[in-house]
Design goal:
By secondary structure, this protein is an alpha/beta fold. It is about 50% helix and about 20% strand. β16, α16 and β17 form a beta-alpha-beta unit.
Length: about 575
C-alpha cells in the first residue's frame, strides 16, 4: 500500500511510522511537511491512502482537501484525517470533503490506526460502488442504449428545466425533431444490424454538427431530436436547421455498403410557439409530418401558433415596401474613433424607419426584408444614399472620413452588386477607398462562389471588407484566411466581458493579439465605459466604436457630433501631455 503522510510535526510523523510498522500494515511511506508538498506529491505520484494532519502552518488539512477536488487522478484515494483538534463541526467538514475516517493524535495506537485504515478503505470501496451504481442507473435513465445519445426522458426534462429558467437567458430556442425518410425500407432491405449502425452513425453526425450547449437525443426508432439553445432568433434557427438537414442527408459507408440517407425535420420555437415542453415537442412532430408530406421542404417550422407572427411579418413587409417606395427610411451614423489619432476617422451607416407602424427595430424589419427579398431594393437605397451623404459630411468636416455600410448575405449573392456600387461612386464622384462594406459570418457559411466573387470585385473598387460581430456564434479563423478581409469588428459581447471577470479580459486581449498577428485592422464595438476604453487604449487597438463616444445620430446631427467628439478627444489628449 502506497501511503502519503502530510504532517508538519516530525515527532508526530515518527509516531505514525511506528504505529504503521507495529500494526503489520505492508506499506511504502512518503512523508511531507506542508500542504504544498502534499499537493505536489499527489500530482506526481499515485497513492492508495492519505494520512493528513489538520493543524499545519500557512495552510491546513482542509485546504488540501479542497485542492484535492481539483486533481482528477486522486479519485481512488482513501483519506484519514489525524488531528489534535476534535469538534463535531470539523469532523462534518472533513466528511463532506471526502474523508473516510477521523482520528485524534492522542488516541492513535498501532491497532487503532490499523483498524482505522482497514475501515476507511472498506468505507471508500462501498462509497465507490454506490457512486458507480448511481452513475450506471443515471446512464440507463438518461441515455439511449444504442447511440449513447440522451433519450426522450432526458430531453423532455431538459425542455422543462429550460422553460422554468430565467426568461432572459434564452431569447429563442428551437426544438428540432428529425427522422429518416423510408427508414423501414432500409431496415427491410439491409437488416437490423446495418439499420442500427446507420442510426448510430447518423446520431453521431447529428451530435457532431451541433454546438456543445445544444442537446441531441434519440427518441426511439429512427426519430432524433435537438434542443437548440445557441441561436438568438427564429431566422438563425432556420438557417442552422436547414444546414443540419443538408449535413445529415448523405451517403453513409456501413460495412462496405454506401447507404443514402435522407432526413426530414420539424421545428417548433420557444417562446414563440408556447412555453410548455410537451406542447412544443408535439408541435415539432406536427411540423415534421408536414415536412414529410412536402415534396420540396426538408425542414418545416410549426405554423399554427405562428399565425399572428406571420400576419405581423406580412404587415411589416407591406409597410416596408411602401416605405421604400415613398423614401420614408433614414440613415443614422455612429462615429468610429482612431485612438492613435484621437479623432473620428470613420462612420457606420445604420438604417432607421421612423414612420414604422408595426416595428422600428432594425433587427426585426431587416430580417423580414431578407425573407421577403425586399433587402435588394432596401440595400440599394442604403448604399446610394450613404455614398451621397458622405460627400456632404466630408465637405462640412473638412477632412476625409470613411464610411462603413452593412451588406446582407442576399445582397452579396447578387452578381450585379459590385457594378451598382461602382455606379454610385461615379455618380457621387467619390473614391472607393473611403468606403468599407461590412458583412457577418452568416454570409460566408456556405462558401458560395457568388459571394467570393462579389467580395473580390468590391475590393477591386478600392473598398475595404470588414467582418462584423466577430467573436459570436459563427466566428471562424478560416474566414479570416480564406476571404479578402481587411478589418475585423470585435463584437460587443466580448467588449462587455472586459469588466465582468479577468478571464473575459484575457480572452479579449488574446483575440486582439491574434488579429494583430494576422495584420488585420481592428475595430472594437460596444465601448460604453471608460474601463473598456482604457483597456482598448492599453492594447493599442486601431479603432473603437460605441456609446462612450456617441450613439448613432441623425444625418442632420452627425457633423456636429463629429466635431464634439473630436473636441473631447483633443482635450483628453492635451490633459495627458
Amino acid at each position: 500500500m502506497n501511503i502519503l503522510l502530510v504532517d508538519d510535526d516530525i515527532v508526530d510523523r515518527k509516531m505514525i511510522r511506528r504505529s504503521l510498522v507495529k500494526g503489520g500494515i505492508e506499506h511504502q511511506l512518503t512523508e511531507v511537511s506542508t500542504v504544498e508538498e502534499g499537493i505536489f506529491a499527489l500530482e506526481e505520484l499515485c497513492f492508495d491512502l492519505l494520512l493528513l494532519d489538520y493543524n499545519m502552518p500557512s495552510k491546513n488539512g482542509l485546504d488540501l482537501l479542497i485542492e484535492l477536488r481539483r486533481v482528477n487522478h486522486i479519485k481512488d484515494l482513501t483519506i484519514v484525517m489525524i488531528s489534535n483538534s476534535h469538534s463535531e463541526e470539523l469532523v462534518l467538514k472533513c466528511l463532506d470533503l471526502g474523508v473516510q475516517d477521523f482520528l485524534l493524535k492522542e488516541e492513535v495506537t498501532a491497532s487503532l490506526l490499523s483498524r482505522s485504515i482497514i475501515q476507511a478503505r472498506k468505507r471508500f470501496e462501498l462509497e465507490s460502488q454506490l457512486h458507480n451504481s448511481y452513475l450506471q442507473v443515471k446512464q440507463m435513465a438518461e441515455r439511449d442504449s444504442l447511440t449513447g445519445l440522451y433519450n426522450r426522458y432526458y430531453f423532455e426534462e431538459s425542455c422543462q428545466r429550460l422553460m422554468q429558467a430565467d426568461k432572459k437567458r434564452y431569447k429563442c430556442v428551437g426544438i428540432l425533431v428529425v427522422d429518416i425518410v423510408d427508414f423501414k425500407k432500409i431496415n427491410d432491405r439491409f437488416g437490423h444490424e446495418i439499420a442500427d449502425q446507420l442510426l448510430l452513425e447518423l446520431g453521431a453526425s447529428f451530435n457532431r454538427h451541433t454546438k456543445q450547449e445544444d442537446i441531441v437525443s434519440r427518441f426511439g426508432g429512427d426519430e432524433f431530436a435537438c434542443l437548440m439553445v445557441t441561436c438568438d432568433n427564429p431566422l438563425q434557427i432556420k438557417i442552422e436547421a436547414e444546414k443540419l438537414v443538408r449535413l445529415l442527408s448523405r451517403s453513409y459507408s456501413i460495412y462496405e455498403l454506401d447507404i443514402y440517407c435522407q432526413v426530414r425535420m420539424g421545428i417548433s420555437l420557444y417562446p414563440l410557439n408556447g412555453n410548455n415542453a410537451d406542447d412544443l415537442i408535439r408541435f415539432a412532430d406536427i411540423a415534421l409530418f408536414r415536412a414529410k408530406s412536402s415534396q420540396s421542404t426538408m425542414a418545416c417550422i410549426f405554423e399554427d401558433n405562428m399565425q399572428t407572427e406571420f400576419q405581423m411579418k406580412y404587415n411589416v413587409e407591406q409597410d416596408l415596401r411602401g416605405a421604400i417606395d415613398r423614401q420614408e427610411l433614414e440613415l443614422a451614423f455612429q462615429p468610429i474613433v482612431d485612438i492613435q489619432q484621437a479623432k473620428v476617422v470613420s462612420l457606420e451607416a445604420l438604417i432607421r424607419w421612423p414612420t414604422a407602424k408595426y416595428t422600428s427595430n432594425p433587427q426585426e424589419f431587416i430580417a423580414i426584408a431578407e425573407e421577403s427579398k425586399l433587402i435588394e431594393p432596401l440595400g440599394k437605397w442604403i448604399i446610394e444614399h450613404a455614398i451621397t451623404t458622405l460627400k456632404q459630411i466630408q465637405t462640412k468636416c473638412g477632412y476625409p472620413i470613411r464610411l462603413a455600410i452593412n451588406l446582407s448575405p442576399l445582397q452579396l449573392g447578387d452578381i450585379a452588386l459590385p457594378a451598382f456600387i461602382n455606379d454610385c461612386l461615379k455618380q457621387a464622384d467619390m473614391d472607393g477607398t473611403l468606403f468599407t462594406f461590412e458583412l457577418t459570418e452568416t454570409a460566408l457559411l456556405n462558401e458560395n462562389k457568388r459571394v467570393t466573387s462579389s467580395l473580390s470585385r468590391i475590393k477591386e473598387l478600392g473598398c475595404k471588407i470588414a467582418l462584423d460581430d466577430f467573436g459570436t456564434g459563427y466566428s471562424s479563423i478560416s474566414h479570416l484566411l480564406n476571404y479578402p478581409i481587411d478589418i475585423v469588428k470585435v463584437d460587443k459581447s466580448l467588449t462587455d466581458r472586459i469588466e465582468v471577470d479577468d478571464r473575459g479580459k484575457r480572452i479579449f486581449l488574446g483575440l486582439i493579439d491574434m488579429l494583430k498577428s494576422l495584420q488585420l485592422s481592428i475595430v472594437v464595438e460596444g465601448v460604453e465605459k471608460y474601463q473598456q476604453y482604457y483597456v482598448c487604449k492599453e492594447a493599442k487597438v486601431d479603432k473603437i466604436q460605441g456609446y462612450y463616444f456617441s450613439s448613432p445620430v441623425s444625418e442632420k446631427s452627425v457633423v456636429k457630433t463629429i466635431k464634439a467628439v473630436n473636441r473631447d478627444l483633443a482635450r483628453e489628449f492635451k490633459a495627458m501631455q
